[in-house]
């Protein structure tokens, strides 16, 4: 099983990286929190890896922090949640906020995440609340958001929303509305756009 990769970013898209490790390209699924913090194509990178084996595929999921990986692995251990949905959860809420929402049994916050209905949110709380009760959240675990240029920022957020399952016309309206607010970083614009889409 692959547990760690160190290499160079060959290609980068929301929720997907291709990592060149000494001439071998690894296709790695990542949450948006990792995607936005890894740097640009050509940057050296080290990722914690979860190898997911199915009958018809072997998929790699990568994370910059131990917290992201731990949450991912606990989410996929929850009945009814597969790796794709777990990545969507981690893309729709910061890791520290996810832990806090589960610990508070904040079902409303969890159902604001695309793809998470009330029953799934209640199951997450039921199955994970006790398991996360003692989890220490290091300061800055979610990573600091950095400012980005307007066009690139719009494209990145739009791509992220489409990867989360939103149709492009709706996603464009939400992104454009969020850019008119004081949101200046990827995280801020994404959150504002998700709030627009929840209306």
What does this structure look like?
This protein has about 200 residues and is of the alpha+beta class. It folds into 3 domains: about 60 residues, Nucleic acid-binding proteins (OB fold (Dihydrolipoamide Acetyltransferase, E2P), Beta Barrel), CATH 2.40.50; about 70 residues, 5' to 3' exonuclease, C-terminal subdomain (DNA polymerase, domain 1), CATH 1.10.150.20; about 50 residues, Helicase, Ruva Protein, domain 3 (Orthogonal Bundle), CATH 1.10.8. It has a 5-stranded mixed β-barrel with strand order 1-2-3-5-4. A hairpin with a 2-residue loop joins strand 2 and strand 3. Helix 2 packs across helix 3 and helix 4 crosses helix 6. The longest helix is centred in the middle third of the chain and has 15 residues. The chain is globular, with a radius of gyration of 16 Å.
Euclidean distance between termini CA atoms:
43 Å
Uncertain stretches of 5 or more adjacent residues: 138-148
| Proportion of residues in extended strands | 15-25%
Main beta sheet: 5 strands, mixed, barrel
What share of residues is helical?
A: 40-55%
Strand order of the largest sheet: 1-2-3-5-4
CATH topology of the largest domain, by name, is DNA polymerase, domain 1
CATH superfamily of the largest domain: 5' to 3' exonuclease, C-terminal subdomain
Topology order in helix (H) and strand (E) letters? EEEHEEHHHHHHHH
Number of helices: 9
Choose one word for the global shape. Answer: globular
Number of strands: 5
Number of domains: 3
The CATH class of the largest domain turns out to be Mainly Alpha
Backbone CA Rg: 16 Å
């Amino acid at each position: 099983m692959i547990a760690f990769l160190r290499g160079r970013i060959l290609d980068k898209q929301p929720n997907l990286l291709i990592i060149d490790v000494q001439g071998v390209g690894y296709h790695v699924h990542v949450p948006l929190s990792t995607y936005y913090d890894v740097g640009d194509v050509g940057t050296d990178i080290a990722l914690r890896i979860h190898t997911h084996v199915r009958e018809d595929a072997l998929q790699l999921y990568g994370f910059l922090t131990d917290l992201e990986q731990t949450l991912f692995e606990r989410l996929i251990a929850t009945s009814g949640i597969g790796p794709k949905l777990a990545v969507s959860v981690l893309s729709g809420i910061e890791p520290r906020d996810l832990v806090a929402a589960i610990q508070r049994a904040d079902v409303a916050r969890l159902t604001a995440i695309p793809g998470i209905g009330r029953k799934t949110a209640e199951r997450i709380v039921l199955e994970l609340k006790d398991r996360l009760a003692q989890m220490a959240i290091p300061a800055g675990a979610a990573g600091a958001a950095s400012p980005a240029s307007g066009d690139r920022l719009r494209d990145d957020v739009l791509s992220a929303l489409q990867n989360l399952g939103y149709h492009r016309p709706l996603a464009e309206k939400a992104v454009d509305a969020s850019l008119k607010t004081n949101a200046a970083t990827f995280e801020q614009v994404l959150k504002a756009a998700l709030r627009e889409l929840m209306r």
